[in-house]
Amino acid sequence: QVQLVESGGGLVQAGGSLRLSCAASGRAFSNYAIGWFRQAPRKEQEFVGVISGSGRTTYYADSVKGRFTISRDNAKNTGYLQMNSLKPEDTAVYYCAANTIVTRNVRDYDYWGQGTQVTVSS
Would you give the DSSP letter of residue 16? Predict the structure, then answer.
């Protein structure tokens, strides 16, 4: 099992940056892939990216590729989502999630953070 706590959301201007953190507790953090998802008002939850347990493999949605970077520090039991060149359309609640395999499917994830609001003003 793993428990996830997110932090780092807030209000930023278009073109700015934020770094979200996903702090984990529980055994064998490095065994879990960490996925990131977001949900804007009146829209379905959207895959953002995922990083493997080792940190050696990442996948990103086309909408964020080149702007967002996913990383992790297994010694600190923490995953990160670095968001640069933010756009108003990035405004959403962002969630981190953990699963034993790398997947883009929201239904495959067993453990979820509480979510953190990211608002990008124009």
Answer: -
Instruction: Enter the tokens of residue 74.
Output: 């297994």
79, 70 in Cβ contact below 8 A?
Answer: yes
**Counting every residue, how long is the chain?**
122
Q: Which amino acid is at 107?
A: R
Mean pLDDT of the chain: 95
List all residues 6 or more positions away from 32 whose beta carbon is below 8 Å from its beta carbon: 2, 24, 53, 98, 99, 100, 111
With a cut of 80, say whether residue 26 has pLDDT above it. Answer: no
> What single letter denotes the amino acid at residue 52?
S
- Extract the runs of DSSP E, i.e. beta strands, from 1-122: 2-7, 10-13, 18-26, 33-39, 46-51, 58-60, 68-73, 78-83, 92-99, 111-112, 116-121
CA dihedral 32→85→17→93, nearest 10 degrees, is -60
Question: Two tokens at 5?
Answer: 């706590």
Assign 1 a pLDDT band (cuts: 50, 70, 90): confident
